[in-house]
C-alpha cells in the first residue's frame, strides 16, 4: 500500500482541479466556433475556385473563338476590298468584271454570316466575362471573410493559450513538494482514466465516478490510517478523504 501525508493527499485535489482546467482549455481550443467558420469559408473558397477555373477556361476558349471569327471576317473584308479596287480601276475585262461582281456578292453574303458568328461569340463571351467578374468578386469577399475569421481564431487561441500558461504555472507550484510516490501514482492513474486521477470521497461517494461506495468498502477505508492512500473500488481513482462535518445540537 502507498502512504502519503494527509495534507499532500488533500493538495492533490488542487492539482487535479488545475489538470481538469487544462483539459477543458485544450478541448475548447480544439472546438472553437471560429475554427468551424474558417472551415466553412475554406469550403466556399474551394467551390469558388472550381467555378473560377471552369469560367476562366470557358472565357479563354471564347476569346480564341472570337479572335478566329474576327480574323475570318477581316480576311473576307480584305478580299472584298481588293476585288472592289480591281473593279473600280476599270483595268479588267468585262468577263473579269462580271466575275468580280459575282465574287463580291458572294463575299458580302459570307461576310454577313461571319459577322453573325462573330456577334454571337461576342455575346457569349460577354456573358461569361460577367459571370467571371461576379465569381472574382465573390472570391475576394470570401478571402476577406477568411482573413477576418482567421484573425478572430488567432485571438481566441491567444486568449486560451495565455490562460493555459497561467494554469500550468499554478499547477507546477501546486505539485511542488508533494510526496513523489503519491504524484507518480496520480499521474499513472490519470493517464489511464481520461485525465482524472484523484477524487474526493464525500459522504461515502466518489466524486470521480459519482458512485456510492457500499458500506463494507466505507468501513474498510475508515479502518485505514489517515496517511494511507486509498483507491475507489469502482473506478480506481485515488480517493482523498474529506472529513465529514459533525452536526452539533
From TrEMBL:
Domain C4-type zinc ribbon: 205-239
Keyword annotations: Coiled coil
Residue ranges occupied by any CT398-like coiled coil hairpin domain in the UniProt entry: 15-193
Provenance organism: Sanguibacter gelidistatuariae
Record keyword Coiled coil present: yes
Name of this protein: Uncharacterized protein
Stored InterPro entries: CT398_CC_hairpin, Oxidative_Scav/Glycosyltrans, Zf-RING_7
Annotated TM spans: none
Top-level taxon of origin: Bacteria
Coiled-coil zones: 52-79
